[in-house]
Write the C-alpha cells for this entry.
Amino acid sequence: AKHLKLILGDQLNAQHTWFRVVDDDVVFVIAELHQEANYTKHHIQKITAFFSAMHEFAKTLELQGHRVCYLTLDDTQAFEDLTALIVGLVKKYDSESFSYQRPDEYRLREQLKNITSHINIPVYEADTDHFLLPFDELPNHFTKATHVRMENFYRSMRKRFNILMEGDKPTGGAWNFDSNNRQSFNKSDIKVIPKPLVFNNDASEYLARIKQHGIKTMGKESTEVAYPINKEQSLTLLRYFCQHQLPNFGNFQDAMTMASPYAWSLYHSRLSFAINCKILNPQEVIQTALLAYEESEGKITLPQIEGFIRQILGWREYVRGMYWINMPEYADQNFLSAQRDLPDFFWHGKSNMQCLNSAITQSLDHAYAHHIQRLMITGNFALLAGISPKQVDEWYLGIYIDAIEWVELPNTRSMALFADGGWIATKPYAASGNYVNKMSDYCKGCKYKVKEKIGENACPLNSLYWNFIGENYDKLSSNHRMSFPVGNWRKMAEAQKIEITEHANYLLNNLDTL
Ligand code: FAD
C-alpha cells in the first residue's frame, strides 16, 4: 500500500474525511498497543471497552470496503513501542507516506511528531474533525498560566454556534440556570430514578488477551462491556438519555444517594466514553438533545437542556483548551505543595467513611462515577488531605472509562486539587462534612458523625477542612473568594485551633485507617 494511516484508540470517528472515499492505496492501522495498555494502570473494564470499540470500528471500515490492518496485543508485542511498530509497518507495506490524526494527548503527539526522525517518507498530521473549536484557534481563547473564565468562553461558544440563542440573546433571557440545579434527593425522588441502559458486549476475547500478556490492571473484572462500543449502541444510549435522564439532568446534577440500585448513574448520560473515543461527535450529541428538548412539549425544561449543553459545549471544549495551552507545564503544577501518599483504600474501596467507600467501590465496580462524586467526594478528600497531585492524577487517569489525559488532568489538577493556583477555578472546591450531608445520604449510618469536629467518631472531613485552611493560610488569605472561611479560621480561639490541628494531624498520619 502506498499510504499508511494510523487510527488511535480514541479516534473512532467514522465521519472523518479520511473515510469519504474507498482507496486501495490506503491501509488503515488500528492496533492494540502494549504502550497504551501500560502507560498507567487502567481499570480492566476500560481496556476491554477500548479494544472492543477499536475492533468494532475496524470491522465497520472493512465492511465499507476500506483496507484495514487490525493488530492484537499478540501482533504488537514484538515492537518496543508505537514508534517501532510504525517503522515496521512502513517497511512491511513499503509505504510512500504515513499519516496520523492529531492526538488529543500531549505525550502521544510528541511521540508522533518525532516519527520523522525514524522514517524517511512524508509524514502528515490530520485534524481529528471532532471538537467544535478548531485547534488553531485555541490561542485566541486561552492564555498560558492565566485564569480563563469558563463562563465567558461558554457564552462565546453559544453565540458562535448559535445554540440556545434568540438573535444575540440567550434563550429564556439567561445564560445560566445553575441555581435551579442544586437539588438533593428526597425519598420520593429516589423511587423514580431511572434504570441506566447498559450493554452486554462480550469481552471475553479481550479479557483473555489482556491477562495472557500480563497487563497490570485495577477494578472489577467483567466478561461484558457495559458501555456502547459502536455507533448504533452509542446513538441508542444518547436517545435513552434524552428520554429518561435529560428531563431531570440539571435538577439533580450535583445530587448523590446510596438508596437506589441506580445510585451509580442517576440522571447522568454516561456518554463520556462514546464521545471521548469519538464514536459520537459532540455537535451531534448537542443537536440530538436540542431536538429532544424542542419536541418534549415542556417535559424537558430550559434549565435541564442548558445544563447539559453547558457541559459539552462549555466545559468539555474549555478543558481541552486549558490542557493544550498549558502543557507540558500543567503536569508539574502543585500550587499547594501537596506531598502525601494516596491512601490504600483508593485501590480497594474499604474505608469507614461511607462517602469514600461508596464512591470508590462504585468506581471500581463500574469504571464510572459522576462529576460530583469525582469532584466533591474523592477529589475533595484528596485536596483536604494534601495528596500528591501526581498520585491523584494517576488514579483518575486509570480508573474511569472516559479517562484520557487531556480531559482528566485539568479536571484533577485544577478543579479537584487547585494545583494550578487558579487557572480554572477561582478558589479551591474545599468542603467539610456539611456539604456531603447536604447533597447526599452518605452520612446516615456512617461510622463518623458529620456534626462532630474532634474525637474518634468525628467526621474526618471537618478537622481536615479547617486544618487545610490553616495549613494553606498564606496562599488562601489573599483570595477574596476565600475570605469567609479564612476569616473564620483567624477568629477561632487559639485553643480550638490547636485541638483541630492536632486531631487533623493524627488523621493525616493514619490516612489508611480512615
Ligand atoms: P454527564 O454528567 O452526563 O455530562 C455530559 C457530558 O458533558 C459528559 O459526557 C462530558 O463529555 C461532558 N462533561 C461534563 N463535565 C465535564 C468536565 N468537567 N470536563 C469535561 N467534560 C465534561 N471527564 C472525562 O471525560 N474524562 C476524565 O478523565 C475525567 N476526569 C475527571 C476527573 C475529575 C477529578 C473530575 C472532577 C471530573 C472529571 N471528568 C472527566 C469530568 C466529568 O466528571 C465527566 O466527564 C463525567 O462525569 C462523565 O460522565 P457522563 O458522561 O455521565 O457525564
Summary: The domain at 345-513 is CATH 1.10.579.10 (DNA Cyclobutane Dipyrimidine Photolyase, subunit A; domain 3). Residues 268-272, 275-276, 311-312, 315-316, 319, 370-371, 374-375, 379, 396, 400, 402-403, 407-408, 411-412, 415-416 surround flavin-adenine dinucleotide (CB under 6 Å). The chain has three domains: 3-126, 138-326, 345-513. The chain has a mean pLDDT of 97.
